[in-house]
Amino acid sequence: MTSTPGRPVPIASPPPAARPRSLVVPAIAALLALGILVGLGSWQVSRLAWKNGLIAQVEQRTRAPAIPLPGREAWPRMSAARDEYRKVTVTGHFRHDAEAYLYHVAGDSRQADRTRPQGQGYFVLTPLVTAAGDTVLVNRGFVPTDRRDPATRAAGQVEGEVAVTGLVRYPEERGLFAAPDDSARRTFYTRDLAVIGRSLGLDPARTAPFSVDADATPVPGGLPVGGETRLVFANRHFEYALTWFGLALTLVGVFGAYAFQRLRRR
């Protein structure tokens, strides 16, 4: 088509259907991102409910009166879900010749308590043999690095029959960055009771699948220091949920502004 001198040539505009089509790809990407953010927020909400339930359960069990530890015939019916942190009493004699050492950093740098141990050291894990001939690993408590050698705390190596009151603890999973255990020196970095039991030569058929963390009852000589089970759990899932849901709302607002500007320009 020829133009008339002095008159502008009309420019064809895109079909109306092509305008919203340009937002299809960004909209799909935004919906995917929104789904991920909402999913993460919902997951944190479920984790919050789980953590609150765990805290309430631990508080209830640790405040309940101690019960006698069931015998070996009942161990298969026990589990972490039903019995973790349950307060029990077990009687027997220690095998101090077979104690092991679980690396631990005591205290909290944010809330230092000078009445409790601080710094690097070990939990002393000692087999306790009951009158029935069964064995329970007892976490007797914390010793500093320079008091690991039993000769430096001989008064605490109690002989004869003892009654230990403490909390039932089940094994923990090995972390990705956990240091390798040194079975030759009986030094461990993960509370894997099967591995520890094998290194000590304990009979797995007669050894409890859990350990007992001794309470803070004083020990002759002052070491090991019991009652060091951590009962305070970080609980920031509500903050994390707000963060993810806030990012989801921000994404909706940003995409809405973007879409409005694109349509307005066209």
TrEMBL record:
Keywords: Cell membrane, Membrane, Transmembrane, Transmembrane helix. It holds the Pfam family SURF1. Belongs to the SURF1 family. Its main location: membrane. It comes from the Bacteria. InterPro entries: Surf1/Shy1, Surf1/Surf4. It comes from Phreatobacter cathodiphilus. CDD domains: SURF1. One of its GO terms (cellular component) is plasma membrane. The chain crosses the membrane at residues 23-43, 240-260. It is a multi-pass membrane protein. This is SURF1-like protein. It is found in: Cell membrane; Membrane.
